[in-house]
Specification:
A alpha/beta; B mainly alpha; C mainly alpha; D alpha/beta; A: Rossmann fold; 6-stranded mixed sheet; B: 2 strands; binds adenosine-5'-triphosphate; binds magnesium ion
Chain lengths: 495, 338, 334, 379
């Protein structure tokens, strides 16, 4: 029912899409994959009326369209779930869901109808933890995702675009989403599904379209292909082993960081030791307290109880600066809001920490910066390019470079490869292991279990704000999930 | 889907159902409480000096003094809610009174009202178009319009001009019982604006645009139109203020708006009323409270014969302190919920 | 990093192009001045033009620091007025005070006002628009309350030399002060502090999580802006003597100058050189309007139109042109 | 050397044409009032010598017995002041307060300050009228706009209006000096006398559109146009000394020489003088106002100068008038005060060392209690 043909788009003279075509049947889940910056989101945004294409045609059920405003796309029956949330935190769920198409009575907004309809939609999605009047900022990330979906479904959509809907979700939540996608497709919606998680792509889709560098590479029938083929099409070459080798026995050295019965409002009873040279993974469900653990270690929302030492010296970081001075680095889960000054150059971002905290050594000079950026394998137009114009994976590399410049002793990664494509992911994995080899202590929080298991020398599992268990390298996904969901608490959580 | 920790659960049980403006600690209730407190304080201080603060005349004067600033501030809240700003209101008021008085002198009152409203709508439209179309920051854009209006006024008027017929001056002077009619004008305009911002689609879009313009646009909101409409609404309110002032002054005055610094005062009142300068939060009802606080303060100063320069010091302190309190409230709220 | 190092020339180009419209505007205005008044470029007249622009340039540099980290300073005009009045008051009480001492006292007082604004803004989280608006009311009110509306002393010649006198008999001190202040501002923005200030304006959270002392950086910006305003007060007071409205309107002029320079309100973007060029443009515009004999009344109309137009041009998509010039030179690989 | 287009307004046009005219006369120019003021300026006032604030010109006395205060209680005097937004008004208000302090029978003196807001002043007047004042003194912010409020108040209390007028004669008396035409003419006549024929005159005005200033300029225009002097520039200074200096500097370089400077008020005359000094030129005949800083420069630099005044001593008169009214004594319907001019001869009399630079010499405050400290001066 939808056909896009010959779509081209360039930003600031850089060609992002070149003659890309795509078609979608009713009731079909059509996956769109490609490296970071391949142009997936741009194509979807063109479909949603956010960008005007430079060239190309768009027809729905035989009618040609050209959207210059998202409202027009909505009117044509297109709903989109954005890669970045488009929710207003201080407005209620119902207001967000009906934003731009509020029902009216006598010319005034009919709140009651709005809230009733929102409640119905939420109920349809088996979501009981949200009421229509809750302000969105009170919701967890996963629930905001639900609101986004409800919002997209609230109008009469025939085509639903989902741009990395599971990036912020744990596997277990992603499965719930998958069943919803199947139900929607069964209702006759055409669904365009963008994801970096190949497993769910193969799980859900009937066809897969691969983009690379703004070009259409292939459209494959899911049934007739396999992951290796898709990856090869995406990356343009064979990817070797997925994960770098783990630490050899005895490689883990001195204690770098220890926490004894640390706790605060969100987490409690944290006993933790990180050693030089090892990569420790932290698993857990959404909201289990993993980010809170990282934020406590880094002094953002510090421990209020317990003791913490770094290299044997006691440390009570009360703000990030204290942690940075002690040699701790945190790669946050939200790199755009927390990791980067988007309108500054690559260099300025890479040097930010060393400039702000001279105790970590003089800021490296030009040549050293170049070496650093080469080390993280950054692909950019130049060192003076603003990072806002880099793709997600390359932005993440800048974040890592920023920390490496400060020569840290402990590296905390919160979802280091969220929204990062397979190629860049592999590069980051390799880099992480290299850093551990050099004697850093590394902590990785990830919602993607294969990655976590592949990378970690041991795995800590969090549940309800506590460390619920520790598993050795190579533990199975099932065993991790068992500890993470732990008994009847799991059922309560699965709202 | 999410495993709730105990504290989260506790919160979500009380959380839903409450809208921000009903909270007693929220800025809107806060500013009305502040108005009450200032009144009480004024009453005590004045009484201690042997005066009587809450006489009917005095209350009426306070209310009367709210009207002009109230009209402008209510309009200003509309633009500020939308994430914009209007610094041209002062000169627009001046020009409005001049146009009103001159048209009334030579034509009729209805024509004059239409002329003023048309002029204001045009200026608002221009402001909106410059902000959205030319993408000039609202601060600079409306400052620019202010300069343009100023030049126009200075080039064409030397001193007061025009004459307002007695029939129209009723708006400025008459009372129904002890209540000035102009107060009804303010209440009517405020009610309309309240209805628009809180209950109409446009209003929802205004909050959305002010809260996050990008997100609003993605959700299908015509953000540009919304901003333009907010500017027009604001300027229409300014027009109402100009008409009221014309009625009260009996003539048009080239400095009616500027000497009273309606531009900065209205912004101060809006912010005092708890509307976030960045947009997206707050509302008309708070603004009225802010205006009332300023008027009550003024009245207390009058009663106590405070040095006018010292008044400014106190006003500055009050504005900063009030906003600091809101910021505190907002911060603790964030800490609780984030 | 795979692309080649940016050649120095290109970097200069890109630094200049971030403020392109303002340099074009300035060039146009200076050319128009030359046409209007052929004598404009005689050395002493041109120097006196710079001398007149000096206070605004200094204010713009200070305002730039505040704007670039995402704030506003509306109190600078009041600081200028207060500075002049306080200086006169000081001389009223201590007629023999050495000028350097009084100048230093003013600078410290300006810095103090900035410190207070900065602390209120960063610690109490009051939007700086409000903080500095309040500060403006407080300063004006307090100074006039103190002096009863009119300053008591006169400014002696020694104090006024910076604003009025010349060095070596031909170079106005004000020009020298302006150049030094400008160079310091450029130096500052190139320093680590300057870069972190920019990053703070761009993303407060990212900066704070990178160890930047955000509140401190912002407060320093306010302090410097306050001190710059006090320095401007020394020049203004020196140039024209005691006046109770010495700084009237300077806050808006300074902000306009900075925005003309392509600096984005909200922070994180723009160069201090362009901001100062914005101040020169504004002064050139005033001079031109004056020389053209545009009737006093219409002057502000013309000014309004030009400011809107210039900022609109700056907001237009110049980056498209710019990008062409900085197309990556190194091949993509990896 | 001006490239101003021929149709440019005011000064520029005349410079281009070299004609004596200074452009069209302001539409607010009122010939009859102009003639009346010039005539008044020539008359000598009635009243005690040396106390100009008690003098009156061509008084038409009216009966006030109806306002005579009965009973013995103290007098409650009220003032609705437009504001104290410039030094002139600040000096004036101090004069009035000191005058009120002179009289024991005044037990209450309430001042409401409208801070330049017409709207607030209307409320202030309403408030005061309902507050049991014995006399209400009004210094209106704007002439036309306060008329209705004053009319209302007239029904309740005896009202005295001063400085700017209102468009009603319901007030018992309206106190003001001769006026703007008189001011402008004195200054212009001085230049006509002192400057060589066809000399180049620079006219500096504060800002357009202010009626009290417009009258000053339009009177000067009449005199200058007639004289054959060449008004090369008419510029607005916004009352900003820095801008004034710049304008004068430019005018000097552009015109080679300036032979006389006319100013519509004194705030910026020192800046104009300095511009000549900084340019290394002799200061030509110049006009100013009775502000101390100008008088001081005048004396120190031995200028050829004149300072017409809009005297601040007029702030004393309303209190005196109020007392007269409450005693039932006659007062003039329009109490025209003299408007003395500071000339070379009287310069020393008005120049008071130790007074602040923005003080107005014509304050008539020298013998008031608290002088000079209250006015910011030193003994
Ligand atoms: N508004 C914009 N201005 C300039 N460049 C842009 C803009 N939006 C996207 N780009 C660039 O276009 C390219 C494609 O981006 P797009 O977001 O479509 O990639 P993507 O395939 O969705 O990647 P990811 O997997 O990281 O989400 C990137 O190089 C990006 O930097
Ligand atoms: N003290 C805090 N103040 C503000 N925000 C916080 C605080 N602690 C955590 N958060 C935010 O709350 C969200 C939920 O974090 P939480 O620790 O509860 O779960 P999590 O297990 O870390 O979730 P995830 O699986 O996304 O990492 C995160 O986005 C985090 O940034
Ligand atoms: Mg994307
Ligand atoms: Mg997390």
């Amino acid at each position: 029912m939808l056909t896009m043909h010959g779509v081209s788009k360039s930003f600031l003279g850089v060609c992002v899409l070149q003659g890309v075509g795509l078609d979608l049947e009713a009731g079909e889940v059509h996956a769109l994959v490609g490296e970071n910056g391949a142009g997936k989101s741009t194509l979807m945004k063109i479909l949603a009326g956010e960008h005007l294409p430079d060239e190309g045609t768009l027809t729905i059920d035989g009618t040609a369209y050209s959207f210059s405003h998202p409202a027009q796309a909505q009117a044509a029956g297109i709903g989109i779930i954005h890669q970045e949330f488009a929710l207003l935190p201080h407005r209620t769920v119902a207001e967000n869901v009906f934003l731009g198409r509020e029902p009216t009575r006598y010319g005034l907004v009919d709140r009651r109808a709005m809230e009733r309809r929102t409640a119905e939609l939420l109920a349809e999605m088996d979501e009981t933890g949200i009421t229509p009047r809750t302000p969105v900022h009170e919701l967890s990330v996963a629930r905001r995702q639900t609101v986004e979906i409800v919002k997209a479904l609230a109008s009469d959509v025939r085509i639903l675009v989902m741009d990395e809907p599971t990036a912020a979700l744990a596997d277990h939540e992603a499965e719930q989403l998958a069943s919803l996608v199947r139900r929607l497709a069964a209702r006759g919606l055409g669904i365009l599904y963008v994801s970096h998680r190949l497993r769910e792509v193969f799980d859900l889709s009937q066809r897969i379209t691969v983009l690379k560098d703004g070009r259409h590479i292939a459209t494959l029938n899911t049934r007739d292909t396999d992951a290796d083929t898709v990856v090869r099409a995406m990356v343009g070459r064979e990817l070797g082993a997925y994960y770098p080798p783990r630490a050899r026995p005895g490689e883990a050295g001195a204690e770098r960081l220890t926490v004894i019965s640390g706790g605060n409002a969100r987490i409690s009873g944290i006993d933790l030791t990180l050693r030089a040279g090892e990569v420790v993974g932290v698993a857990g469900l959404q909201g289990s307290g993993r980010t809170s653990l990282a934020r406590a270690l880094f002094g953002v929302a510090p421990f209020t109880t317990g003791t913490m030492t770094v290299d044997g010296k006691p440390l009570r970081p009360s703000r990030p600066r204290d942690a940075v001075r002690a040699g701790i680095a945190l790669v946050t889960e939200d790199r755009k809001a927390e990791g980067l000054a988007l309108r500054q150059s690559v260099t300025d971002n890479a040097l930010l920490v060393t400039r702000a905290v001279p105790a970590r050594g003089r800021p490296p000079a030009g040549r050293e910066v170049t070496a650093l950026l080469e080390r993280v394998r950054l692909r950019a137009h130049g060192e003076d390019q603003q990072v806002q114009y880099l793709s997600g994976g390359n932005q993440q590399k800048v974040v890592i470079a920023k920390w490496l410049a400060a020569r840290p002793r402990v590296l905390l990664f919160d979802e280091p490869t969220r929204g990062v494509d397979v190629g860049a992911k592999a590069a980051i994995h390799t880099l992480v292991r290299e850093l551990a080899r050099e004697g850093l202590a590394v902590l990785i929080i990830s919602s993607e279990l294969p990655e976590l298991i592949g990378m970690s020398d041991r795995i800590l599992v969090m549940s309800e704000g506590r460390l619920a268990g520790e598993l050795p390298a190579g533990a199975s996904e099932e065993s991790v999930m068992r500890v993470a969901t732990g008994g009847n608490r799991a059922r309560e959580g699965a709202a | 889907m999410t495993a709730l920790r105990p504290d989260l659960k506790a919160r979500s049980r009380t959380g839903p159902g409450r809208t921000a403006e009903l909270r007693l600690t929220g800025p809107v209730a806060g500013v009305w409480l502040a108005a009450l407190a200032v009144t009480g304080l004024g009453w005590i201080v004045v009484a201690a000096r042997g005066g009587d603060f809450l006489t009917v005349t005095n209350v009426v004067t306070i209310l009367q003094n709210c009207v002009a600033l109230g009209l402008v501030a209510v309009g200003q809240s509309a633009v500020i809610l939308t994430g914009s700003l209007d610094l041209s209101v002062a000169y627009l008021i001046s020009l409005g009174t001049l146009v009103a008085a001159e048209t009334m002198e030579s034509g009729s009152v209805p024509v004059a009202i239409l002329a003023v409203l048309a002029l204001c709508a045009a200026v608002g439209l221009a402001n909106g178009l410059i902000v959205t179309g030319l993408k000039v920051n609202a601060f600079i854009a409306t400052l620019g319009t202010a300069f343009i209006l100023r030049g126009w006024i200075e080039d064409n008027y030397t001193g007061p001009a025009g004459r307002v017929p007695a029939s129209f001056q009723h708006l400025g002077y008459d009372r129904i019982g002890p209540v000035p009619v102009s107060l009804f004008l303010l209440l009517a305009v405020a009610a309309i604006l309240w209805l628009v911002t809180r209950r109409s689609r446009l209003g929802h879009h205004m909050y959305a645009t002010g809260g996050d313009e990008h997100a609003a646009r993605l959700s299908g909101v015509r953000t540009r139109r919304t901003v333009i409409t907010a500017h027009v609404l604001c300027s229409l309110c300014v027009g109402a203020a100009a008409l009221f002032l014309a009625a009260r002054l009996g003539a048009g005055a080239p400095w009616a708006g500027t000497e009273a610094r309606y531009d900065l005062e209205s912004i101060a009142a809006v912010v005092l009323g708890g509307t976030a300068l960045a947009g997206g939060r707050g509302g008309v009802s708070g603004t009225l409270g802010g205006v009332l606080v300023l008027a009550v303060l003024d009245s207390v100063f009058n009663q106590l014969a405070v040095d006018p320069f010292f008044k400014n010091v106190v006003r500055g302190v009050v504005i900063i302190a009030a906003v600091a309190l809101y910021a505190r409230g907002r911060r603790t709220e964030q800490e609780r919920t984030a | 990093m795979t692309s080649a190092q940016a050649p120095a020339g290109r970097r200069v180009l890109s630094a200049l192009t971030t403020g392109t419209p303002v340099y074009i505007l300035l060039a146009a205005l200076l050319a128009a001045l030359a046409l209007t008044d052929p004598g404009f470029y005689e050395p002493d007249r041109f120097l006196s033009f710079i001398k007149r622009a000096a206070p605004l340039v200094i204010l713009a540099a200070g305002q730039y620091l505040v704007i670039v980290c995402g704030e506003f300073d509306l109190s600078v005009g009041a600081i200028v007025t207060a500075g002049v009045v306080v200086a006169a008051e000081l001389y009223g009480s201590f007629p023999g005070a050495p000028w350097l001492l009084v100048t230093v006292i003013l600078l410290l007082a300006g810095a103090l006002a900035g410190l207070v604004s900065g602390l209120i803004t960063t610690l109490l989280r009051v939007p700086s628009f409000i903080t500095t608006l309040g500060m403006m009311l407080i300063l004006e009110g307090a100074v006039f309350f103190w002096t009863g509306g009119s300053p008591h002393g006169a400014l002696p010649a020694a104090f006024r030399r910076l604003g009025r006198g010349t060095a070596f008999g031909w170079l106005p001190w004000a020009v020298l002060v302006c150049v030094v202040a400008g160079l310091l501002a450029v130096r500052l923005m190139r320093s680590d502090f300057g870069r972190t200030l920019l990053a703070t304006g761009d993303s407060e959270r990212a900066a704070s999580l990178a160890g930047v002392r955000v509140a401190r950086a912002r407060t320093i910006a306010f302090i410097l802006s306050g001190a710059a305003a006090a320095l401007a007060a020394v020049l203004v007071g020196g140039f024209s003597g005691v006046s109770a409205q010495a700084g009237r309107g300077y806050e808006f002029e300074a902000i306009t100058a900075v925005v003309l320079g392509g600096v984005v309100l909200g922070g994180g973007r723009g160069s201090v050189v362009a901001a100062m060029a914005g101040a020169f443009s504004l002064q050139a515009l005033f001079t031109l309007l004056n020389l053209q004999g545009v009737s006093g009344a219409l002057e502000s109309t013309v000014q309004g139109v030009i400011v809107i137009a210039a900022v609109a041009l700056g907001a237009a998509d110049w980056s498209r042109l710019r990008r062409r010039g900085t197309e990556p030179s190194g091949a993509k690989s990896s | 050397t001006s490239d101003a287009p021929p149709d440019a307004p005011a000064g520029a046009a005349s410079a281009a044409a070299g004609a004596p005219g200074t452009g069209r006369q302001s539409k607010f120019f009122d010939r009859a009032e102009y003639d009346r003021q010039l005539a008044l300026a020539k008359e000598s006032p009635q009243g005690p010598a040396g106390k100009p604030w008690e003098q009156m010109l061509r008084p038409q006395l009216v009966d006030t017995t109806q306002y005579k205060k009965k009973g013995s209680g103290g007098i409650h005097l009220c003032l609705s002041n437009a504001g104290v937004f410039n030094p002139w008004r600040q000096v004036g208000l101090k004069n009035m307060q000191a005058e009120a302090g002179l009289h024991k029978e005044i037990t209450d003196f309430t001042v409401l300050d409208a801070q330049g807001k017409d709207d607030k002043q209307i409320s202030d007047i309403q408030e005061l009228a309902g507050q049991g004042c014995d006399v209400l003194i009004v210094s209106p912010n704007t002439t036309a706009t306060l008329t209705p409020a004053v009319e209302q108040a007239c029904g309740k209390v005896p009202v005295i209006v001063f400085d700017r007028g209102v468009e009603t004669d319901c007030a018992v008396t309206f106190i003001n000096p001769i006026g703007g035409y008189g001011y402008g003419a004195v200054a212009a006549d001085f230049l006509v006398e002192k400057v060589k024929p066809k000399g180049k005159i620079l006219a500096l005005r504060i800002s357009p559109g202010v009626d009290v200033l417009e009258t000053r300029w339009s009177a000067a225009k009449v005199a200058l146009d007639k004289s054959g002097l060449d008004v090369v520039d008419v510029k607005f200074t916004d009352g900003d000394p820095a801008k004034t200096k710049a304008i004068v500097t430019d005018a000097i370089t552009r015109n080679g020489d300036i032979d006389g400077v006319w100013m519509d008020s004194g705030a910026t005359s020192v800046a104009a003088v300095e511009a000549f000094e900084d340019a290394g030129k002799d200061v030509p005949p110049i006009t100013g106002e009775d502000q101390q800083d100008f008088l001081q420069v005048w004396k120190e630099e031995k200028l050829t100068a004149i300072a017409p005044s809009y005297p601040t001593f007029q702030w004393r008169t309303p209190v005196i008038a109020a007392l007269k009214i409450l005693k039932g004594e006659q007062v003039p319907k329009e109490w025209k005060l003299p408007q003395p001019t500071v000339t070379q001869d009287t310069l020393d009399q008005y120049l008071k060392p130790g007074m602040p630079p923005l003080h107005y010499a014509m304050c008539g405050c020298e013998n008031l209690p608290g002088f000079p400290e209250k006015w910011g001066g030193k003994k």
